[in-house]
């Protein structure tokens, strides 16, 4: 295919999302039952994020979420996605 100026189009850059979802930035957020006291941590990989989420749960924070891969996960969903992605 030739563009109007006579040049061929440049190839579109693609991303390898199979490895991208295993690393990156993950935000772990723990919320207590009261509005004050929200705790957040930024982690660089899935294992660190899951370990931090478990730590928040062990500290008694009842609502823990992980933001990563363009989604918001509960700890259970994130653990399942991590296990399924490793297989």
List the helices and strands and how they pair.
Elements (H helix, E strand, L loop, with lengths): L16 H4 L2 E9 L7 E7 H13 L4 E6 L2 E4 H12 L1
Antiparallel strand pairs: 1-2, 1-3, 3-4
Helix pairs in contact: 2-3
Count of beta strands = 4
Strand order, biggest sheet? 2-1-3-4
Strand content: 25-35%
Question: What does the oligomeric state look like here?
Answer: single chain
First-last Cα distance: 40 Å
Shape field: elongated
The overall pLDDT average reads 79
Low-confidence stretches are 12-21
Q: What is the share of helical residues?
A: 25-40%
Major sheet attributes: 4 strands, antiparallel
Structural category: alpha+beta
Mind telling me the C-alpha Rg?
Answer: 19 Å
DSSP helical segment count: 3
Instruction: List the secondary-structure elements in sequence, H or E.
Output: HEEHEEH
What does this protein structure show overall?
By secondary structure, the protein is α+β, with helices and mostly antiparallel strands. It has a domain at 18-69. 33% of the residues lie in helices and 30% in strands. The chain is built from three helices and four strands. A four-stranded antiparallel sheet has the order 2-1-3-4. Strand 3 and strand 4 form a beta hairpin. Helix 2 packs antiparallel against helix 3. The longest helix has 13 residues, at 46-58. It is elongated, with a radius of gyration of 19 Å. The model is unreliable at 12-21 (pLDDT under 50).
Briefly say what this structure is.
The protein is α+β, with helices and mostly antiparallel strands and 87 residues long. The chain is built from three helices and four strands, in the order H-E-E-H-E-E-H.
């Amino acid at each position: 295919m030739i563009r109007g100026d006579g040049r061929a189009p440049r190839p579109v850059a693609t991303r390898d999302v199979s490895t991208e979802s295993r690393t990156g930035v993950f935000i772990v957020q723990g919320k207590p039952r009261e509005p004050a006291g929200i705790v957040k941590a930024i982690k660089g990989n899935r294992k660190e994020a899951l370990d931090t989420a478990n730590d928040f749960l062990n500290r008694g924070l009842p609502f823990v979420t992980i933001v990563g891969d363009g989604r918001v996960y509960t700890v259970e969903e994130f653990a399942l996605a991590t296990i399924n992605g490793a297989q």
